Amino acid sequence: MIPAMDHRPDHHSHSHPHSAIGHVALTDRHKAATRSVWVSVVVNLFLSSAQIVIGFFAHSQALIADGIHTLSDMFADFIVLGANRISRSGADENHPYGHARFENAASLAIGFLLVIVGCGMLWAAARKFIDPDSIPQVHVIALWAALLTLVSKEFLFRYMLAVAKRVNSSMLVANAWHARADALSSLVVAIGIGGNLMGYTFLDPLAAALVGFMICRTGGKFTWDAMARLTDRGMTPAETDAVRATFMATPGVKGVHDLKTRYMGDDVLIDAHLQVDGWLSVSEGHYIAANARRRVLVSHQALDVLVHIDPEDDGTGEILDELPPRNEILAWLSSALGDDASQTPLPVLIHYLDRTVDLDIFIDETEAPQTDPDLLQRMRASLPLLRQAIPQLGRIRVWRSVYRESEDTRRGA
User: Fold this and answer.
1) Which of 62, 129, 168, 320 has the greatest CB tally within 10 Å of its CB?
2) Which residue, 323, 380, 387, is CA-closest to 355?
3) Where are the extended beta strands (E) located within 156-254?
4) Are the beta carbons of 18 and 124 closer than 8 angstroms?
5) What is the pTM of this model?
6) Tell me: the pLDDT tens digits for 238-249?
7) CB burial readout 140-158, b (16+ within 10 A) else e
8) Nearest residue to 295 via CA among 239, 244, 233
9) CA-to-CA distance for 185 and 177, rounded, in angstroms?
């Protein structure tokens, strides 16, 4: 291409690579969740049955209550199983981003359950402080049952927490800490039974009050975190800066603005405006956007990345409504050049940059050798008329193509 005529600088282009969901080992996550939850169900079913039966024959109301508390773990497990089944469903018409937030909803439910259990323990402890003589004499087998429950629950907690961290599931983390809360309640029962056997009955309500407070605190933390994610909380500033750095490391990206993130389950959705050279073609801008998107999906735990390409920083807002659209520009150009131009439309690239309109006009003499030799002169002569019609008109460049390699030549035919 040979530049035949020039009249000024600099430019725009927008690209929106379409979102595609990028899962981070979701199948492994759901399998691990299902397996760990069923392990918890089996352990809790055995422990709760043993606690209630032994507590009844050993005359330990505390052990019976702890057995009922263990049943609440099973209830939490079934919440997790249900949420895990739903969250693994793919996107549909009503949930275009998938069902990952059902995990957050399950975490919210487990958090509420922890708060309720903790408040129940505080209330029970308060009642025991009021009437410590209400604690009956228990059999020593109740203490061994409480200790066995404590050890089993601790091992269950460590197993579930390891699985949760391996697959990065906040829902499984919440369920693991629920198991730890139940282990702490078993510790309270063991201390209370031990104190009962030694005659120090006040240790039971005191320990119950402390652990009840800890359980309420843990439940409140999970409830707050789940609520924050359900209400579109984004990544931390440090995490956002890391995403920005990944964008900026992409060749062709000159700047990043309007970077926004929000959680979808345990993954994150990312929206960003990337600034590129305004004189790039649409296809090259799309290539840069797709490359930047791929880099973020690979380097960060993103469910999807939506990239908008800008030819300049529009962070302060674009004013495009005052610039004429393509159909009006082509109509004015055709009118200025005469009727012949309208019969054989010329390829025109329009650039909207710095609130001006720049034009690149292409004359392909390999396809239209009969092109009017006076066309360039007519364009120069029409400039005052064009600038009057288009006040925002900036640079005009006319390009003449005098040689084009054929498909056969490129293929070596």
Assistant:
1) 62
2) 323
3) none
4) no
5) 0.59
6) 999 999 999 999
7) eebbebbbbbbebbbebbe
8) 244
9) 12
